[in-house]
Design a protein that fits this description.
InterPro entries: Homeodomain-like_sf, HTH-type_TetR-like_transc_reg, HTH_TetR. This protein folds into two domains: 3-46, Orthogonal Bundle (Arc Repressor Mutant, subunit A), CATH 1.10.10; 59-198. It is 76% helix and 0% strand. The chain has eleven helices and no strands. It is an all-alpha fold and 200 residues long. The mean pLDDT is 82.
């Protein structure tokens, strides 16, 4: 039997698509079951609640990003500039999948899911970005006088800007109108600004 025929995997994939597109609150388990061609009773045999399903979706999405970033980081055949390009292109692409309304929604209505998202963000900023900077400094691609801790904090702030709806609500509408409309494009721009300041 192929993995795509596994009911649990099918449920997670469809739920991810619906959550990221419509937000958490607007997705009904009955509608999800209908899309999957199963009864709601069958759906609840795999996941006891919508929030449990959300937590699995967020955890798997985060782990998927982590695995790919780790693979690129550990690949000694990839030159550092190409490694930077691949990592941030991939992360930006994964952020493109997420509707900003989804982030705002889970912050208000699914606290456990919000905490998981925050943890994945912290892992990305403080562990993997730090490792990337270390390699760049050792190989001479990053300026020797660049403050590593400051660069990591700037990167963490970039992720916070994208993934925290409270921040964007404080930004004047005129300024927000000049920004790209999706998280992935905002992320690309912020990373570009950070790296232009620290590359040798």
């Amino acid at each position: 039997m192929e993995a795509t025929e596994n009911p649990r995997i099918r449920i997670i994939a469809e739920a991810k698509s619906m959550f990221f597109t419509y937000g958490y609150s607007k997705v009904l388990m009955a509608e999800l079951a209908k899309r999957l061609g199963m009864s709601k009773k069958t759906l609840y045999q795999y996941f006891t609640s919508k929030e449990e399903l959300l937590n699995v979706v967020i955890r798997q999405h985060g782990h998927e990003i982590q695995r790919e970033v780790e693979r690129i980081l550990k690949d000694t055949a990839i030159a550092f500039p190409e490694k930077v390009k691949q990592i941030f292109s991939y992360v930006g692409m994964k952020l493109h999948d997420i509707n900003p309304e989804f982030v705002r929604d889970i912050k208000l209505n699914a606290p456990s899911g919000w905490q998981q998202l925050q943890q994945h963000k912290a892992d990305a900023a403080f562990l993997r970005f730090s490792a990337l900077l270390d390699e760049g400094m050792i190989k001479g691609y990053i300026r020797a006088d660049a403050n590593r801790a400051m660069a990591v904090l700037l990167y963490a702030s970039a992720l916070e800007t994208i993934l925290n709806p409270d921040f964007t609500q404080q930004v004047p509408r005129e300024l927000m109108s000049e920004l790209p409309g999706d998280p992935g494009s905002v992320f690309d721009g912020l990373v570009n600004i950070i790296f232009k300041g620290i590359l040798a």
